[in-house]
Amino acid sequence: DKLKSALTKTKDVLRTDVRDLFKAGVILDDAKLEEFFRGLVTTDMGVVAAQSIVDELKAKFGGRTVEPDDVWGVVKGKLKEILRGEGDCNWDVTDPLSPLNLAEEGPTVILVCGVNGVGKTTSIAKLANYLQKAGKKVVLAAGDTFRAAAVAQLTMWSERLGCEIVTKPAGTDPAAVAFEGCDRGVESGADVIIIDTAGRLQTHQNLMQELGKIHRVIGKRIPGAPHESLLVLDATTGQNGLSQATKFSEAANCTGIVLAKLDGTAKGGVVVAIREKMGIPVKYVGVGEQIDDMELFSPDDFVDALFS
Ligand code: GDP
């Protein structure tokens, strides 16, 4: 399936760097554990997670002869435990909308943020597609008014998807677009309003102010909104983007991550580092450029696919 093939490159790293370390009857000594640690780190899962896995292996099997199945059982179990977090991702894997916090009454507002080029526009289109397939009426708001190309691209997607979009001239205050998007959504009886936001790199202070204003304006128009605030990250940058992502996440009060471009990277382990460093769940992963190339993130399916 798509997730498995998206993880091909990450699996290749694991296969060459790590898997061969554990042949049947191998003695799990410190040198082997050190090599294993380095292999895990190559997938960008972060040293904390890698160390905790190695520590557990050492405690269970250190200095003893091991069977590969036992080792992989421990590794998979530990990764699943980390990724499950505090149980905030116990959603129904058969329902692609289940990670979303949908409003009980009236339209749900989903704010989407992320740095330019990470795959934000494409992820919004994929999300809108999921929602429409589930019979929801969607309105998009093109809040990235700093980039004409972003507005044009989102407009193109709205035409392909057949959903309404609210746009304003370049340079308009993004909060004004967000407000009008909410207005349109309420008037037209939409189920979900998805608001794009500016993805330019800017100072933390400006970002906080801009996103703070958008939050206030949306909340005024639709009490309780935004119900969901998703941060889109690019898996190909691995852990490099994480400190910046954490700032974004704090500014926007993010409730979940969409990890785009998982298919193009050997750094798929970054999912683990995100979970540990940011403390919010990955809700969706992008596995290609097409409209239906996005999957709900399930810790168990992810770990099983990684070691399949
Ligand atoms: P934005 O600037 O953040 O809005 O990024 P875009 O949505 O325009 O995406 C940037 C590029 O990444 C485009 O060429 C997309 O087709 C591509 N892209 C987005 N998501 C994915 C994904 O999950 N996998 C792959 N392979 N490419 C993606």
TrEMBL record:
Give the GO biological process terms. Answer: SRP-dependent cotranslational protein targeting to membrane
Enzyme Commission number: 3.6.5.4
Q: Could you tell me one molecular function GO term of this UniProt entry?
A: GTPase activity
How would you classify this enzyme at the top EC level? hydrolase
List the InterPro entries hit by this protein, alphabetically.
Answer: AAA+_ATPase, P-loop_NTPase, Signal_recog_particl_SRP54_hlx, SR_rcpt_FtsY, SRP/SRP_N, SRP54_GTPase_dom, SRP54_N_sf
Q: Span of the secretion signal?
A: none
Q: Which residues bind GTP?
A: 114-121, 196-200
* UniProt-listed PROSITE patterns: SRP54
UniProt entry keywords in alphabetical sequence: Cell membrane, Cytoplasm, GTP-binding, Hydrolase, Membrane, Nucleotide-binding, Receptor
What catalytic reaction does the record list? GTP + H2O = GDP + phosphate + H(+)
A GO cellular component annotation in the UniProt record? cytoplasm
SRP54-type proteins GTP-binding domain span: 281-294
PANTHER family for the chain: SIGNAL RECOGNITION PARTICLE RECEPTOR SUBUNIT ALPHA
How it assembles, according to the record, is: Part of the signal recognition particle protein translocation system, which is composed of SRP and FtsY.
What's the family?
Answer: Belongs to the GTP-binding SRP family. FtsY subfamily.
The record describes the protein's role as:
Involved in targeting and insertion of nascent membrane proteins into the cytoplasmic membrane. Acts as a receptor for the complex formed by the signal recognition particle (SRP) and the ribosome-nascent chain (RNC).
Q: What is this protein called?
A: Signal recognition particle receptor FtsY
